[in-house]
From TrEMBL:
Keywords tagged on the record: Membrane, Transmembrane, Transmembrane helix
The organism of origin for this protein: Candidatus Chloroploca asiatica
Transmembrane segments: 6-26, 38-56, 102-126, 147-165
High-level lineage: Bacteria, Bacillati, Chloroflexota, Chloroflexia, Chloroflexales
Protein name: Metal-binding protein
């Protein structure tokens, strides 16, 4: 499979291709003004890059991808335990990126809830941040439907760029086998890790 650097290059290159296509579609087909077309394109391409680089399908592995989260790498440890590598749940075109987004939102909400609970046990009154986050997200999504669609679309395409690259390599190997050319399939070095379901907590 392509390594992390190759996947990053694919993500950036596909984002660069999407930018003029998105702007042209929005400004000509959808008849959006220049400012609106630029803004929606930036949201789309930005979410495409964030999805491919930080929310990569390979977050189901202990690899370079979760290391990019720095001190917050542990957020993805339960995800690695639950999601099988290169499974529908991690490498599908639409479901898996939305699953990672929902997982991240759930983790942040639980952490905020836990913080509020700890403060209450210490006799300190703090705002219910978890509820405020929910209300803010709901209000923002309602107030910005077009931006929300652009973000979700870009988030899915960023993940899809990774998944399609993996599929291409796998199917390419199968195609070569038809002609008697066999490539030894090795996961060593993929995304900077040895492909084992061992997760370091």
């Amino acid at each position: 499979m392509p390594d992390a650097r190759t996947h990053d290059l694919i993500t950036v290159a596909s984002g660069a291709v999407m930018a003029p296509v998105s702007y042209g579609y929005l400004s000509e087909t959808m008849q959006r003004g220049h400012a609106d077309a630029v803004m929606l394109t930036l949201w789309l391409v930005g979410s495409h890059l964030v999805s491919g680089i930080l929310f990569s399908p390979d977050l189901d592995l202990d690899s370079k991808i979760d290391n990019r989260w720095g001190v917050f790498y542990w957020i993805w440890r339960p995800y690695m335990r639950i999601i099988p590598h290169r499974h529908f749940f991690s490498h599908s075109l639409i479901f898996s990126p939305l699953l990672r987004l929902a997982y991240f939102y759930l983790v942040v909400t639980l952490l905020l809830f836990f913080w509020v609970w700890v403060m209450a046990q210490l006799g300190l009154v703090v705002p219910d941040y978890h509820m405020q986050l929910y209300q803010y997200m709901r209000a923002w999504l309602s107030a910005n439907p077009e931006v929300s669609v652009a973000v979700l679309f870009g988030f899915c395409t960023g993940s899809a760029a990774h998944t399609i690259a993996d599929w291409s390599v796998t199917n390419g190997q199968r195609f070569l086998r038809i002609f008697g050319i066999r490539i030894t399939r090795s996961y060593r070095g993929h995304d900077g890790s040895i492909h084992q379901r061992r997760v370091r907590w």
